[in-house]
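Researcher: Here's a chain I'd like modeled. Treat it as a single chain, no partners, no ligands.
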Amino acid sequence: MTPVLPPAADPRLAGAPASPRPGADPAAMARTARAFEAMALGALLQPMFEGLGKGGAFGGGPGEEMWRPMLVNEFARAIAEGRGLGIGDAVMRQMIAMQEQRA
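Model: Modeled as a single isolated chain. Structure tokens:
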């Protein structure tokens, strides 16, 4: 049985996680660009839901305030995973250009 080490003693958790070299994996760059697009879309969609008030389709109550931002973020992620708005494509092109400048 492998002993369980506390986080401070576990060498795998020491220091900052090693980040892969950008550009080394095009799939990772595409995921990063999509994640950025989802974050930007979430910021754009959030104000649309602020004026809806409580109740209606969401049922109201104190839990609604907690769950609504998660719903908006999920909408944004779904849009970005679909066709998106092109923000991810623009970010990907910029990431590739930055990699070419470094090379």
